[in-house]
Write a structure and sequence with these properties.
Blueprint (H helix, E strand, L loop, with lengths): L2 H5 L4 E3 L2 H13 L4 E6 L5 H13 L2 E6 L19 H10 L4 E3 L3 H4 L18 H4 L3 H16 L3 E5 L3 H13 L5 E5 L19 H22 L5 H13 L4 E9 L13 E10 L2 E10 L2 H5 L1
Parallel strand pairs: 1-4, 2-3, 2-5, 3-4, 5-6
Antiparallel strand pairs: 7-8, 8-9
Helix pairs in contact: 7-8, 9-10
The chain binds pantoate.
Length: 298
């Protein structure tokens, strides 16, 4: 059976590691490349863009839908995180996913679960400061999913910029035999980055949330226009956020895309990253900015 035949089949849902391994094993024995898109459900066009990327490169596409408790802090939204399996399965099927792994929490974390993975340093910056333990939970569940699915390629969104940097580092540090693809952010027409948590925003919050993408555009405009004083750029980013009274900024800065450390010199590539609370919802966004070589040399 060819890859395109498989993509037309209805999505199959499995809940156990054994059923998952059997299905992936059969696909691999048929010579198909395995693609993985890990998700927590509440799927939107951003997730589907990862699935489309997987579909275009892999003969067998696995999506996981698992709201991972270990990446939520005690006062975060684990219990109210949006869950709608029927809608998510339809989204997976429309994006050409072959198999959905939807395990119960007790299967991923049995009572004796005691092993966690931590990418030191990177996990304590930015999001890690406001969400202690978050990236330990992310790294642990992603490693488990990679071990269960054993994909050739796994797809993550650039939207969670720190997450993708941590996952790439973990895979490199632990010599995991998987390629990590990072896919571009999908935005609404007005610039708001798609996020499962956007459903929490009121109409006023949603309008105010545009300050995040505007603040990134300010940075791109200044750096692209040749500004080399990055302290000035940071100030302008913060000013843009501060102009919206409903927006409570956490950080808005320019970092090295690999180390996530703040940069003050003029590297050829930097990442503008921003996080803010809008109403009761914490939002993040980012933009990769490439400096033209003549600016970099100035
Ligand atoms: O980005 C997400 O949805 C989650 O953090 C992930 C990677 C699926 C791990 O739970």
């Amino acid at each position: 059976m060819s890859a395109s035949d498989l993509s037309r089949r209805p999505v199959v849902v499995v809940e156990t590691a054994k059923a998952l391994r059997d299905a992936v094993g059969a696909a691999r024995r048929s010579g198909l490349k395995i693609g993985l898109t890990p998700t927590m459900g509440a799927l939107h066009a951003g997730h589907q863009s990862l699935m489309h990327a997987a579909r275009s490169e892999c003969g067998f596409v696995v999506a996981t839908i698992f709201v991972n408790p270990t990446q939520f802090g005690p006062h975060e939204d684990f219990h109210r995180y949006p869950r709608d399996l029927a809608r998510d399965l339809a989204a997976c099927e429309a994006a050409g996913v072959d198999l959905v792994f939807h395990p119960p929490v007790a299967a991923m974390y049995p009572a004796d679960h005691a092993t966690f993975v931590e990418v030191a340093g990177l996990s304590n910056l930015w999001e890690g400061k406001s969400r202690p333990g978050h990236f330990r939970g992310v790294a642990t569940v992603v490693l488990k999913l990679l071990n269960l699915v054993t994909p050739d390629i796994a797809y993550f969104g650039q939207k969670d910029f720190q997450q993708q940097a941590i996952i790439r580092r973990m895979c490199r540090n632990l010599d995991l035999p998987v390629e990590i693809r990072v896919c571009p952010i999908v935005r609404d027409a007005d610039g708001l980055a798609l996020s499962s948590r956007n459903v929490y925003l009121s109409a006023e919050d949603r309008a105010a949330a545009l300050a995040l993408s505007r603040c990134l555009q300010v940075a791109a405009g200044m750096v692209g226009g040749g500004e080399t004083d990055l302290a000035l750029v940071r100030r302008a980013m913060r000013k843009e956020l501060a102009a919206s009274p409903r927006v409570e900024p956490d950080y808005a800065t320019l970092v090295d895309p690999e180390t996530l450390e703040e940069v003050d010199d003029c590297p050829l590539r930097l990442a503008a990253i921003v996080a803010a609370r809008v109403g009761t919802t914490r939002l993040i966004d980012n933009l990769l900015i490439d400096r033209c070589p003549p600016c970099a040399q100035s």
